[in-house]
């Protein structure tokens, strides 16, 4: 963003020194992850419940077999990434089969974090893997089609999160707005498969048609918990070349994620639309932070809603500005916004 401030009140706080750390585990393991994270200094998280789709044919690479999964996201200073990845991997044995997946995404901007992160002076680590993230958002019931298309290579499974569309997409029945039910499919795929999978999905799901779905990919910095298929070993040079080819087309789009208390998703959507967005996808979640009550520490786990807006980069500034002005994100506890670049989007709604 080339503008110095998003608003007069605040937004110097567009901090670029944060990373999104994501953990995908069986639901019965999720609480252990969050409790341990608090002990090592990560006191805030947001989690989503979903389902996994691994089959015996693909367990060579994706080694989580339990159908019930939880996706837990943490926003941490980038300087702490290596330390936190190492501690979580050692504690929960992500290097072993069937323990879960752990990966990181570098964030371009963050709002609503009260403590400014130290500048990251560490070497760039985004060439540790040739995997990238792939996200497909479709109407409820079509997630299985996404996975059928993508799993032809017998490489991958995925995680499905229930979601719903924004008010703009709603249908009114007897004056009640019925928001369409959606499914978000999250997968990690080899970078050299991205274009092929995109083309298959566009053809199968007619993603170029209005309101048929959204597809995009995003960069992964580090990953633990995925086992390479036999014979699928690449040198660091090959990994760098594949990522360079994928990143050759500059990412002109962003994913803007806004985390707010339950019931405020409509305010986020309206603020984002005022900034230039059309439509959003909303996930239900739980959040947590630790609050000191004199002699005791109490865990607070309120319900949250996460609003995902996919937009052209030239609208990112205005959308963040409107959300910030609505929620006063410089005040603690109002919400969090984070942004990361995306590639190869299909099916977006923009003015």
From TrEMBL:
<dbReference type="InterPro" id="IPR002187">
    <property type="entry name" value="N-reg_PII"/>
</dbReference>
<dbReference type="GO" id="GO:0030234">
    <property type="term" value="F:enzyme regulator activity"/>
</dbReference>
<dbReference type="Pfam" id="PF00543">
    <property type="entry name" value="P-II"/>
</dbReference>
<protein>
    <recommendedName>
        <fullName>P-II family nitrogen regulator</fullName>
    </recommendedName>
</protein>
<dbReference type="GO" id="GO:0006808">
    <property type="term" value="P:regulation of nitrogen utilization"/>
</dbReference>
<dbReference type="InterPro" id="IPR011322">
    <property type="entry name" value="N-reg_PII-like_a/b"/>
</dbReference>
<dbReference type="InterPro" id="IPR015867">
    <property type="entry name" value="N-reg_PII/ATP_PRibTrfase_C"/>
</dbReference>
């Amino acid at each position: 963003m080339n503008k110095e401030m998003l608003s007069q009140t605040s937004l110097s706080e567009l901090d670029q020194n944060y990373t999104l750390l994501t953990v995908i585990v069986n639901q019965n393991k999720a609480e252990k992850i969050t409790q341990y994270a608090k002990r090592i200094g990560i006191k805030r998280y947001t989690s989503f419940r979903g389902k996994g789709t691994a089959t015996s044919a693909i367990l060579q690479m994706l080694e989580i077999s339990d159908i019930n999964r939880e996706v837990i996201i943490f926003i941490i200073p980038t300087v702490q990434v290596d330390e936190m990845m190492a501690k979580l991997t050692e504690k929960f044995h992500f290097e072993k089969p069937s323990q879960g997946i752990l990966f990181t995404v570098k964030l371009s901007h963050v709002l609503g974090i009260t403590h400014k992160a130290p500048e990251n002076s560490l070497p760039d680590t985004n060439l540790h893997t040739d995997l990238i993230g792939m996200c497909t958002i479709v109407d409820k019931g079509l997630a299985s089609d996404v996975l059928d298309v993508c799993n032809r290579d017998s490489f991958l499974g995925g995680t499905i999160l229930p979601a719903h569309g924004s008010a703009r997409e709603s249908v009114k029945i007897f004056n009640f707005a019925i928001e369409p039910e959606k499914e978000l499919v999250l997968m990690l795929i080899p970078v050299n498969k991205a274009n092929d999978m995109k083309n298959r999905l566009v053809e199968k799901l007619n993603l170029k048609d209005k309101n048929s779905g959204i597809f995009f990919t995003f960069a992964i910095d580090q990953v633990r918990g995925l086992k390479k298929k036999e014979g699928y070993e690449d040198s660091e040079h090959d990994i760098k070349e594949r990522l360079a080819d994928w990143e050759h087309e500059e990412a002109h789009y962003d994913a803007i994620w806004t985390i707010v208390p339950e019931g405020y998703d409509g305010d986020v959507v309206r603020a984002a639309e005022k900034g230039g967005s059309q439509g959003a996808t909303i996930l239900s979640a739980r959040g947590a932070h630790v609050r000191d009550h004199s002699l005791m520490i109490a865990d607070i786990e309120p319900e949250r809603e996460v609003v995902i807006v996919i937009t052209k980069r030239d609208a990112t500034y205005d959308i963040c500005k409107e959300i910030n002005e609505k929620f006063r994100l410089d005040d603690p506890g109002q919400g969090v916004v984070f942004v990361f670049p995306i590639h190869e989007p299909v099916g977006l709604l923009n003015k």
